Amino acid sequence: MSFIIVAGAMVSFMIPGLAFLYSGLARRKSALSLIWAVSASNAICIFQWYFWGYSLAFSPTATNGFIGNLANFGLIHVLDNPSPGSPLIPDLLYSFYQMEFACVTVGILMGGLAERGRLLPAMIFTFVWMTVVYCPLACWAWNINGWGFKWGVLDYAGGGPVEIGSGVGGLAFAWVLGRRQEKELLNFRPHNVSMVNLGTFMLWFGWLGFNGGSAFGANLRAIMAIWNSMLAAAFGGIVWCLLDYRLERKYSMVGFCSGTIAGLVAATPASGYVQPWAAVIMGIITGAICNYATKIKFLLRIDDALDLFAEHAVGGIVGLLMNGLFATRSIIALDGVNTNVPGGWVDHHWKQLFIQFAYVCAACTYTFVVTALIAKGIDMIPGLSLRTTQEGESLGIDDVEIGEFANDYIEVRRDFQDWTPVGDRMSELGSVPTTDTISAGGDRHGQPDLQTNHHRTLLRMDDSGLESIMEKPLDIQEHSDSN
After folding, report:
1. Which superkingdom does the taxonomy of this entry point to (predicted)?
2. pLDDT bucket at 460, cuts 50 / 70 / 90
3. What gap in Å lies between CA 442 and CA 204, rounded to an integer?
4. For residue range 7-32, what is the model confidence (pLDDT) as tens digits?
5. Cα(292)–Cα(107) distance, rounded to whole angstroms?
6. What percent of the chain has pLDDT over 70?
7. Average pLDDT over residues 407-422
8. Mean pLDDT, rounded, for 354-383
């Protein structure tokens, strides 16, 4: 019991990890809104799980195989009975641990509203989505009467409910929300890569509780799951980073973090089933496939700003399919409970790959269709439009929706050329601009977000706020930061 309590607390630490990761990946003017969305969705999920979420996912008296009933509404009769996950831990502890899984899932999903989504409608969406998407997915795979559980689906810690649910759900949400304005897509780059790294390693720490705790005991299977998670994350990060290096000859920090997360995602459904050598193969394959999968959003014309589909959905799918190939009965039996579960192809159980594939297809289809319907339905309700106005998008969600900022300072002047890479033509000219293009401070390639005349505005703070007090012509272009 102590081990699962600690593992659940580690999973809860993934919430601020997600918040910092998403915030670092966003523009500065919408950085705090993503922290708020992840944090608030956590609270909504806790209420939903207590209210009826746990009952709809895990009530043992429901026999339809699709979704539970309300027998455990408000955690009624949830106390010391053996849990659905393991007879060694009580139902009440299991409900807490599974609640943290749900909280992480909706936290991931909140990345779909990046930089143009309104917050109140997103919270309403969270409650409804948890009820009609996440709870059925969890019931399929983990409820003792779920159709996937009975059929023999191998989903250790959430390839379907957590990864496909959040990744495919995030893609559907972003599709309904629509693309950001084209000027917001020009020259985009993360506003704080240090925060991206911090969030990634907070996630990695929590993921050890996520995957290790899913053995439901301090046993050898938990340790094996932790080892496999470490290996998949390490190789995923290395492969992604090398693939990016071949293009720009730079060791991208964002690329390394992205690959690390992709490896952890693949380990989620598989780490408690496979040998360490299989985790190495899985990490390499996942790092490569998820890297190339980031191009899918361009083919689909869906503005999946934070690559939820490429990392979480695709990574989860790879992990689930790896179970069909590499799941081993001997690893599964290390917990001392699941001693009769057949493995995959390495154990000559050829049918398992088909079972995994069918489960992936069912989870992806159900998640995308139902998520899109929920989002569109909420968007049509007066006053609950999912998307902010064009003006709000230009100003930033932090200013429009929150009134606070992740980094509250005023940048009066910034020479875009100050950061020009070594060997660039402009750096050889001493970073003196040679065109009439004015670039906003958040831009990357000199494309204009903000057009100004060749004037300089001096600014002063007084009791009435920011005030322009003088303008004069400039010989060298200068500009205020639009972000």
Report:
1. Eukaryota
2. very low
3. 29
4. 999 999 999 999 999 999 999 899 99
5. 24
6. 84
7. 56
8. 97
At 73, list the tokens. Answer: 């509404």
Cα angle, residue 101 at apex, residues 98 and 107 outer, rounded to 5°:
145
Q: Residue 188 corresponds to which tokens in the numbers above?
A: 């985009």
- Inter-axis angle of helices 193-212 and 14-25, nearest 10: 150
**Exposure of 298 by Cβ count < 10 A (0-12 exposed, 13-18 middle, 19+ buried)?**
exposed
Q: What is the DSSP string of 389-429?
A: -HHHHHH-HIIIIIS--SS--------GGGGPPTT-HHHHT
* 3-state helix/strand/coil string of the chain: CHHHHHHHHHHHCHHHHHHHHHHHHCCHHHHHHHHHHHHHHHHHHHHHHHHHHHHHHHCCCCCCCCCCCCCCHHHCCCCCCECCCCCCCEHHHHHHHHHHHHHHHHHHHHHHHCCCECHHHHHHHHHHHHHHHHHHHHHHHHCCCCHHHHHCCCCCCCHHHHHHHHHHHHHHHHHHHCCCCHHHHCCCCCCCHHHHHHHHHHHHHHHHHHHHHHHCCCCHHHHHHHHHHHHHHHHHHHHHHHHHHHHHCCCCHHHHHHHHHHHHHHHHHHCCCCCHHHHHHHHHHHHHHHHHHCCHHHHHCCCCCCCHHHHHHHHHHHHHHHHHHHCCHHHHHHHCCCCCCCCCHHHCCCHHHHHHHHHHHHHHHHHHHHHHHHHHHHHCCCCCCCECCHHHHHHCHHHHHHCCCCCCCCCCCCCHHHHCCCCCHHHHCCCCCCCCCCCCCCCCCCCCCCCCCCEEEEEEEECCEEEEEEEEECCCCCCCCCC
User: Which amino acid, residue 117?
Assistant: G
* pTM for this model (two decimals): 0.85
| Segment 260-307, tens digit of pLDDT | 999 999 999 999 999 999 999 999 999 999 999 999 999 999 999 999
**Of 92-101, 175-184, 259-268, which gets the smallest average pLDDT?**
175-184
Q: What is the pLDDT of residue 282?
A: 97
Within a 13 Å sphere around the CA of 104, how many CA atoms are in the beta-carbon half? 31
Torsion over CA: 94, 96, 97, 99 (sign):
positive
Find out whether 470 and 458 touch, Cβ atoms under 8 Å: yes
Least confident range of 106-120, 181-195, 253-267, 280-294: 181-195
